[in-house]
Input
Amino acid sequence: MGKIRLLTDEVASQVAAGEVVERPASVVKELVENSIDAGARRITVEFARGGGQLIRVTDDGAGMDREDAILCLERHATSKIRSAEDLSVVATMGFRGEALPSIASVSRFILATRSRDGETGTEIKIAGGKIESVSDCGVAPGTSIEVNSLFFNVPARKKFLRGEETEAAHIIYQMQSLAIAHPEVTMTLLREGRSIWKAGGTSDHGVRVVDLFGADYMRRLMVLEASEENGIKLEGYLSKPGEGRPDRDQQFVVLNRRVVQCPAVFRALREAYGDALPRGRQPLGVLRVSMDPLAFDCNVHPAKREVRLHRPELLKQAVYLAVRRMLESLNSSTRSAATETRVESPRLELSSIAATSHSSRSFARPPQMELPVPDLIIPDTPEERFQIIGPLGAHWIILEGKDGLVLLDVRAASERILFENLRREAASGNASSQNLLLPSLIDLAPKDAVWISENLEALRSTGFHLEPFGGDSFKVEAVPACLASSDVRNALLDVCLSLRSTGLMGSSQPVMDALIRSVSRFASSNGFQYGEQRARHLVNELLKCELPYACPQGRPTLIQWSFSELERKFGR
Ligand code: ADP
Ligand code: MG
Output
């Protein structure tokens, strides 16, 4: 009999739940975002015992009739998009249609809902993904979802929940983020039946900041006046000089109504403060960014926490300049001339490489800002493509493109190519692996061994064939074809580290991606002997990639200096 089996819907939902539902706070996020999408003006969130025992989210939104209430529990059921094209302009918080079935598959779940014109409400009870009852119920228009005993049927995940205090802290932080991003909605948070905070709906963002964090916090901030540049609108409240924290816990970046993790913005913010903050301190506050939804992709993280910007350098620059302007406005009224000169001394080397129409002379470009990822569009037709000029140092290849000079980073490019190949192979279930001449026995530290034994299946689908060999030892029989057989031990340690950093178990996509990322990083670290043929192969393979512009870690693979930039630099 063959080995391949289709997963039952129940198991498939539990696997998907691994991506969407990391912990109680993720349940809160998904449910509250659904309420927001349903047009709720009031949302009440209650939780008990860190959310592991109970999470209840009640809203006064559109509610659902019976048919929709049943349908919304199906996988990929969503009222928010109809086609893949809708994804690029999605204005709702949700769109994947996986949250409710995923949550219902790992909890005892009660949905009570009534549409605004519905005569009665519907109550649906589900345990571990199985519908137990559907009945009439008397409820106010809107929706209430109760999630009891989260992960009761998935002990492996339950084991990974932290203590109640930690999980509660995550929920509170999550609610702060949601409240910051949606000041117009009245939100109430209750813990073990007692109100922790309540923030009335307001159109004034500043009021919401005070409601959430208090007047003392607000006194440490100054206004970032609304500005718009390159279609990027910015506004907010940010640290006064000298007011910072060692972490980013009180720094919120809201991009089109979502609090996001966006390293480009984090860096630009910190760099803009320069020595207006002591070393190691991060600015506080809320930065609101609005931009065309076509300018970024929010479908890159299962919980939509991360976004991929198509032109990160534009946003970085806009943030940097706006914050400099804010700080300088203060400088001109209160600071000595000496400080001003320091603020103004620009790093010319960098700014001249990327001279752009709006870089005004009074603003320095951030000192450690990487070279900007250029406006580089890879042509579709092969005969326009790059001409190889030769190697540059140990790491780069010089290319001539239609629009100018292009440098290719060998390692970043190799990582991208390996990553996409391995990912494709793993998805089709046939990762190429090479058998070791002699199986290799590897002893691991206990904490690493746990990760390896929990992820044997995921490892197998990327080409590692290994089995437990008693205690914390493993017998390795084959490794991914791209790895040198002598590297087995170090490659595995690298993999452990990446797996641990995801905090996730099982073959969910984030786990697979972390694994594949670490294999491709490891395999690309071996150095590159330049040769015309090899260089050509590398370029061709890179251009075949879906995302050729950056390595899986986000570093650029190609940077370009356009002919017009070169002409400008040479004063032609
Ligand atoms: P998504 O949000 O990606 O569409 P979900 O699984 O979170 O997927 O929700 C599925 C559908 O259920 C939503 O598209 C929406 O139509 C409906 N729904 C979920 N929560 C609510 C709610 N609180 N009020 C009204 N409708 C809801
Ligand atoms: Mg949703």
About this structure: Residues 30, 33-34, 94, 99 surround magnesium ion (ligand 2) (CB under 6 Å). Residues 218 and 295 are 31 Å apart (CA to CA). The chain has three domains: 9-199, 220-328, 352-429+484-492+503-572.
